Here is the input.
Amino acid sequence: MNMLVNGEWRTDAYQTTDKTGSFNRQQTTFRNWIVGSDPADKSDATIDNRFEAESGRYHLYVSYACPWAHRTLVARKLLGLEDTISVSVVDPYRGEDGWQFTPEKEGCTEDHIHGADYLREIYVKADPEATCRVTVPVLWDKKEETIVNNESREILRMLTTAFEPYHTRDIDLLPDEQKDRVDEVITEIYEPINNGVYKAGFARRQKPYDKAVTKLFDELDRWDEHLGDQRFLVGDSPTEADICMFTTLIRFDHVYHTHFMCNKQYIHQYDSLWPYLRDVYQLPGVASTVQMDHIKEHYYTTHPDVTPHGIIAHGPDIDFEADHQRDKLSDWDLAIAEQ
Ligand SMILES: N[C@@H](CCC(=O)N[C@@H](CS)C(=O)NCC(=O)O)C(=O)O
Here is the structure.
């Protein structure tokens, strides 16, 4: 797999699976915090006084395909930070050269800050000796000309807390009295669900696949039951935890089910997870962050060891816009017009 080693691009540098055939996600490297933000539970990031929340100062590099980057796009939309934080979008296909800017392609943009061709150039600008994977999302500081952070959970927390003075929509994704539970739920769903689909899809032996899929569906069953009488994961209104669950669920039926062999059941066959997914999808602005073409192109064409011919699967034919009727569980409503 490709990564930077001492600032040089290498195509042979890291293995995604270990000797047992299990998928191992690498640690994230840029872990600074913007002043005024609230480090997420168990974070080893450090608050750095160099970085203050300001409008127009920070830029997000994302892929619409990536569930981790998608967390930051959903939060930016729901909180109304579009004018505060700008965005560049990479090509959904990630080849030998890593993430690339192809502004001519539908839904993609140029690198608005540096005019770079590849995302790795941004990493090397931040650290000429960088040794790391070149991943999205990236939160870039135009003032200090460096990467603040490239860990989605932490960027999400910064958007919720440090950027609070710039929120233009009346939604609290981290109510004080729910903060501990939100952190617990984000942690609880990470390994079995958010990362679990990757552990199933990238397993190279039967045992790690069996383990990942069993745990994944046990946990989906558990949350399905939980959502039977509660509208969102931690209460009556959406929180950061719902964003973290959403970006995995929205990819599930079109990609993880088939491509990653997470096929015991579709999300649209669950009694509660399916209407819950539509509820979050229909929150104002969220649908505009979902680019299913990018999602499908990325997964089916970028993993030649999983789908060697790069054929993009059709279907399933499901309607995220269908009435969810979850408002019978709580009357929470964000009375703002779709962007
Ligand atoms: N820990 C990171 C993970 C980000 C991540 O793995 N992003 C993937 C895209 S879905 C990526 O950019 N992978 C490129 C690579 O591993 O070389 C986060 O949550 O922000």
